[in-house]
Amino acid sequence: MSEGLSYFIPHHGRPKISLRIPESHSLHVCPAACGRRSGIRAIRNGTKEHVSFLYITEADVSSGGYEDMVGDAVADLLELLSPRPRAFQIYVNCIDDFLGTDEDALVAGLEARFPDTAFAVFHIDPVAMDGPIPPGMRQQERLYSFLRPREKDGGVNLLGTFVQPDPASELYPFLRACGVTEVRSITDRTTYEDYQQMAASRLDLVLMQMGRFAAQKLEERLGIPWRFLPATYDLDQIRANYQTIADALGAPCPPLTAERQAAEQAIAGALGCARDLPVVVDSSAAMQPFALAAALHRYGFQLRAVYAAHWKETDRADRDWLTAQLPDLPVLCSERYEDITACGIPRNCLAIGYDSAYLLRARHFVDIQRDEGLFGYHGVVRLMERIAEAALHTTSWR
């Protein structure tokens, strides 16, 4: 293979979700080519009526007149759109790194011109992925920047994820038992007023790394404390996480004995189905792939490799533990796809995550993506059900 040339793993059919504020409109301010991907995504997701584009040219950039163009575009949209948007999400691309737009001045000018409408500027900036605060975390923070102070009630917010925990998860009855009156997330808000009610919540539970910066800012602005509780598949850590939630709410921790027993039974069932199949874990399946791999190893699965093209420092302890326990385990922290195909892993393996499954043409594919919908003991049960199903069936790679 030529140096620098790599394969592209095709998308396997899931829509890429874009979070939005209810009753809002997204205005993308960018060169024409830069907006193409966002436009296609809006069409595929059925949200094109909520998205508009203001294409700027080199002349607009040189003259600096694009900021006035934004206000005029908003004025046109407010006349055309029905119902009238309560808020505008102004998206700028990486060209803005060169323009140096004064965001505060832009927003202040728009709010003065349109006093009944809220505004915030969002950056779509892939060139800044290696910065101290990645673009995804900044976008999450911007999503909650419209919230205004409210008197606190018994609600709890779930932050950071694009897909909330499965409604069948024990998380929801657990929170009710701890005195929580309403569980809120941006994904289930139907009106702008519903969205504003998130400011009244007494606690933020951050379920994914991407939401940590947003939670920090909400604590500073609105006084909402937060706890970082990423998805885990270790039963003892799950118990510790629930104790953390109960302590934060000032409530006794329900025992959840039956839920843990159900998870233990599911693990035993999945082990019986997987038998001696070599297992590969990759970072498309879990936000903390080393934590998932470590849990599977402790349960008795035959771990063969971890392909972590993307991982966070929050997963460091489990990575170190895993390499100490299995010093010969291939740990592939690379975006070079050929690294995993050169490891000698047989096709007759159990691949947890689409990236490794596709590259290896694995005969057994466990289809989970970034822990979506999986939390607590119920998350372990669902994972084990999928492992058992994948172990008993062969995946066809046409």
Helices and strands in order:
Layout: E1 24-30, H1 36-44, E2 51-55, H2 58-63, H3 66-80, E3 87-93, H4 96-99, H5 103-113, E4 118-124, H6 135-143, E5 155-159, H7 171-177, E6 182-184, H8 192-196, E7 203-206, H9 212-222, E8 226-228, H10 235-249, H11 257-274, E9 278-282, H12 289-299, E10 302-307, H13 316-325, E11 331-332, H14 338-341, E12 350-352, H15 354-360, E13 364-366, H16 376-392
Parallel strand pairs: 1-2, 1-3, 3-4, 5-6, 5-7, 7-8, 9-10, 9-12, 10-11, 12-13
Helix pairs in contact: 6-9, 11-16, 12-13
Poorly predicted parts:
none
Structural class: alpha/beta
What is Rg?
23 Å
Share of helical residues: 25-40%
In DSSP terms, counting alpha (H) and pi (I) runs of 4 or more, how many helices? Answer: 16
Q: What this model shows, in words?
A:
The chain is of the alpha/beta class and 398 residues long. Helix content is 40%, strand content 15%. α1 links the parallel β1 and β2.
In brief:
The protein has 398 residues and is of the alpha/beta class. 40% of the residues lie in helices and 15% in strands. It has helices at residues 36-44, 58-63, 66-80, 96-99, 103-113, 135-143, 171-177, 192-196, 212-222, 235-249, 257-274, 289-299, 316-325, 338-341, 354-360, 376-392; strands at residues 24-30, 51-55, 87-93, 118-124, 155-159, 182-184, 203-206, 226-228, 278-282, 302-307, 331-332, 350-352, 364-366.
